[in-house]
Amino acid sequence: MSKRAVLEVIALDVEDAVAAQAGGADRLELVTDMAADGLTPSAATVAGIRAAVDIDLRVMLRPADGFAAGDPEGLDRLVRVAGELREAGADQFVLGFLDADGGLDLAAVERVVGALGGCRWTFHRAIDRATDRDALRKQLADLPGLDTYLTAGAAEGVDEGLATLLAEAGRRGEPGYGQTILVGGGLRLDHVPALRHAGIDAFHIGGAARPEGWEGPVSAEAVARWRAVLDDDVA
């Protein structure tokens, strides 16, 4: 029997978080400013959400739109913010940095991860913009705390990246491929059967949980529909 799939939902505030948990989400990704595809939320927001729900939270560490870590001063600020977020109750994170050529900015990733004190973290969809996904995975393979890749398989989304996702699922256990594949980015319910058949058991939704779009809140009913489909697909 396949194990129960993880359903992660993007939350911007307490209202989103409460609705997502009520709908059956297992975990939240906490961000702000979806116009920039999700930036680091405030420590106050994290603390409020942590007090309102009891499911896992992964907090975005991303200072600006794009996948660059920024200048040394900006990286220093991000490290300080990571410490503030930990004090606010965050114990799981989301991050990922590329250089100007699309290669992994390993120095920046290592600097931020070093401030997390062993907390678990996701390398986010920067992998879908990397020039060499395989090389990136192997460079990151031994970093402490990395347990998940959030990926659509392609920058354009799951429709274009499905074959890559299935291929990477088939490499599970190889060096650089031991982490969970968390599928998100243009993910639809009709993608689920093929992904589950390949052994993928973690799914990430944002807009799909918001019938009114990003100007509206997370809908517990929308999340529950995803939960039901993921649970029905267990065989």
TrEMBL record:
Protein name in the entry: Copper homeostasis protein cutC homolog
GO molecular function: copper ion binding
Family: Belongs to the CutC family.
Xref: InterPro entries: CutC-like (IPR005627), CutC-like_dom_sf (IPR036822)
Annotated source species: Streptomyces griseochromogenes
Residues in coiled coil: none
PANTHER family, alphabetized: COPPER HOMEOSTASIS PROTEIN CUTC (PTHR12598), COPPER HOMEOSTASIS PROTEIN CUTC HOMOLOG (PTHR12598:SF0)
